[in-house]
Amino acid sequence: AKQDGRGVFRFFEPALDAAARKRRALELDLREAIQSGQFRLNFQPIFDLKRDRIGGFEALLRWEHPTRGNVPPIEFISVAEETGLIIAIGDWVMQEACRQATAWPAHVRVAVNVSPLQFRNSGFPSVIFQALSHSGLSPDRLEIEITESVFLDGETTVVTLLHKLRAMGVRIALDDFGTGYSSLSYLRSFPFDKIKIDKSFVDAVAEDRSAAAIVRAIVDLATALHMETTAEGVEDRDQLSELRGQGCSSIQGYLFSRPIEGNMVAAMIGSAMSA
Ligand code: C2E
Ligand code: CA
Ligand code: CA
Ligand code: CA
């Protein structure tokens, strides 16, 4: 038997498989990353098709590890969620996103991804409150992006909290729409400000008639419910013209711009780029 750091005897050490060891190493590195400030934010513009200008930017987390290099979010967000580290990381993201957004023109919003665990944490409303008060950002310039999975345990508490955030002036977007389950019932339970149409539909929108029909149905539904729509992952002009024709409010994707560093945002807003 061997003693680990916490004084627990492990009799089956060899059974700790390679995958578990990798995850454990990643967890330790994530803790270190928080301490030593290895995170930063990139921002991807969301182009408003109705007003023909950039309406906002989505904050996207970037981790530059000294030896691992750039670790993409899909490789560490799930570990951060399983270990609870997402609370501290998400807190930092919220503060930093609001802080940077105060330097942008007043009509430009910042969208921040909020993981279900972070959202359901009892400290979440005060995290938002503090990020807003410390930065001085007007609440209506902050949009939080949540996925349907926040509703999985306890729809009533989630809806109550959403109303509380809305009362503060914060905007709420439903992210990755169409990828989860029973999406439509959530649209009835809360009046989101925006629906983000998942890339998987956008990818096929110009070629595949059923994808185009689904996107049209989502846009029509959102419009009837007074919600805006953002098409995610728009990569080519054919997709753009199809989405524009369908009345989609805004687009986000490599066609307009990849995510950029925070210090490039002002220049991008300044150069009157048009989709
Ligand atoms: P998401 O919220 O759906 O973010 C959009 C992702 O699509 C981003 O990937 C973005 O870089 C990518 N993307 C945008 N346009 C295009 C395009 O035209 N083509 C392609 N192929 N990809 C495009 P990223 O930055 O790697 O983030 C992946 C996911 O990680 C995000 O998906 C989100 O779920 C999560 N994530 C990122 N930042 C945060 C954060 O601060 N907090 C939390 N909780 N999750 C985050
Ligand atoms: Ca998102
Ligand atoms: Ca998304
Ligand atoms: Ca996604």
UniProtKB/TrEMBL annotation:
Lineage: superkingdom: Bacteria
Ranges where the EAL domain occurs: 23-273
Keywords of the record: Membrane, Transmembrane, Transmembrane helix
Protein name: EAL domain-containing protein
